[in-house]
Inverse folding.
């Protein structure tokens, strides 16, 4: 039987015949032209929106009533950008479903959705093209595109191993206190949150916003959480290098050497400063062992983790300043952490040394760094600093009654995706919370990457303007 074709459908595009809206087709066509930076930035934005709407559902809230769009957006952004700033206590506000939504976003935000996507492609035996490899390279900040598929596999396997061991160790402490199911669940939740530098906790059943203050002198909880934070924060490139060369420091990449040395210096230096500044203040009622654990924990968690074993709001001004500096520095490139990164700090210090000593180039460990890396480090420092200061002024303009020190603490915590808080986040107006949302997003995606993702690249002008010198310094 001969098929009769409707004349009105004869010249109609196949996409339209299948019911695909024209706007959706245009979106897919536009997506094919996105840069790697734009794809990652838009991807995180989509995950945040999806998480926001999931948290607004009645099933996510213990009261059955939504916390409101802005508060849910703040929570979803904080989870996806692995920060830890919250509009409400996690245990008191969210049901188990809501907590699992948060945990899912923390895991995606920590590993990166590109890494998870590549790993799933490996499992499904799908071909991974050059575009996917380029996205993976951009996502984890690896030095070369070769071997990124193998690296994705190693990242996921390593993550499952570290989070699994962390959950087991924490369960040893939590199960006797909370029972088998609840203790194991708490072990898993806090292990993932610590490894991904998320900072979310479920200790609100003891006291809202108490975090890990009830375990300030518990060596098992302290050591496990700190180890997970550091392992997650040193970066996947360092993982790969350590797995290849074990303890042979001389064979490490220059990147690995700089990350390990800077991380150790910041951890020990910060711990000593906190001990000296707080032993007669917030740590006065603790024994010597508790003071040492609290000082070290504060130093580690300030660099993008968000947990606390002491009352952050009660810290002295000196300790708050040290915390702000550590939060601003953050972790290392290609890790679960935020901040300007340890390598950026190292490059800036090397630049200062080279300028003072008037040496040629940035020399370290018998190697010379590329000249452009100093300029990039300066841009990252300036851009993040400007974002934090502008956001602080923005918040103070709308809420002049707040202490500037607390506002600066909160904004630097957001841009560094640290999650440390003096407690004012939940008191902020919606317009101020939106400022924190922007800071957390920029801190996770990268401030410069965020700016490039939402602006069109401009062609270089055919004619350059004449040069004229000015005096600086």
């Amino acid at each position: 039987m001969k098929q009769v074709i409707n004349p009105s459908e004869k010249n109609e595009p196949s996409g339209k015949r299948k019911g695909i809206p024209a706007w959706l087709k245009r979106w897919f066509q536009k997506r094919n032209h996105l840069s790697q930076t734009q794809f990652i930035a838009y991807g995180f934005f989509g995950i945040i929106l999806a998480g926001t709407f999931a948290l607004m559902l009645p099933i996510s809230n213990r009261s059955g009533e939504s916390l409101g769009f802005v508060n849910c957006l703040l929570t979803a952004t904080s989870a996806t950008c692995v920060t830890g700033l919250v509009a409400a206590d996690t245990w008191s506000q969210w049901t188990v479903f809501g907590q699992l939504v948060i945990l899912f976003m923390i895991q995606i935000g920590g590993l990166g959705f590109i890494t998870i996507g590549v790993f799933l492609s490996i499992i499904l035996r799908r071909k991974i093209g050059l575009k996917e490899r380029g996205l993976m390279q951009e996502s984890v900040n690896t030095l070369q595109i070769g071997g990124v598929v193998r690296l994705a596999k190693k990242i996921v396997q390593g993550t499952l191993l570290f989070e699994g061991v962390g959950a087991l160790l924490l369960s040893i402490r939590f199960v006797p206190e909370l029972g088998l199911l609840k203790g194991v669940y708490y072990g898993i939740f806090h292990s993932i949150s610590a490894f991904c530098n998320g900072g979310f906790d479920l200790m609100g059943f003891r006291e809202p916003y108490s975090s890990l203050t009830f375990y300030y002198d518990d060596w098992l909880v302290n050591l496990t959480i700190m180890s997970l934070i550091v392992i997650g924060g040193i970066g996947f490139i360092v993982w790969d290098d350590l797995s290849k060369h074990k303890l042979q420091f001389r064979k490490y990449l220059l990147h690995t050497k700089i990350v390990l040395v800077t991380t150790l210096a910041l951890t020990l230096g910060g711990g000593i400063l906190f001990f000296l500044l707080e032993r007669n203040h917030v740590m006065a009622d603790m024994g010597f062992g508790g003071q040492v654990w609290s000082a070290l924990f504060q130093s580690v968690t300030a660099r993008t983790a968000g947990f606390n074993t002491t009352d952050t709001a009660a810290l002295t001004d000196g300790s708050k300043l040290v915390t702000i500096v550590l939060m601003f520095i953050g972790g290392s490139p290609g890790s679960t952490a935020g901040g300007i990164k340890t390598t950026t700090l190292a490059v800036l210090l090397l630049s200062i040394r080279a300028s003072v000593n008037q040496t040629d180039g940035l020399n370290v460990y018998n190697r010379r760094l590329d000249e452009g890396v100093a300029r990039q480090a300066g841009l990252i420092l300036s851009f993040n600093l400007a974002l934090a200061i502008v956001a602080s002024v923005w918040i103070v303009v709308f809420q002049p009654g707040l202490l500037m020190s607390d506002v600066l603490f909160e904004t630097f915590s957001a841009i560094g995706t640290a999650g440390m808080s003096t407690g004012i986040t939940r008191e902020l107006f919606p317009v101020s919370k939106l400022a924190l949302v922007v800071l957390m997003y920029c801190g996770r995606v990268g401030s410069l990457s965020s700016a490039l993702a939402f602006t069109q690249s401009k062609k270089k002008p055919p004619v350059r303007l004449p040069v004229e010198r000015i005096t600086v310094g």
The first strand starts at residue 363 and ends at 364. Residues 148-178 form the longest helix (31 residues). The chain has a mean pLDDT of 85. The chain has 21 helices and two strands.
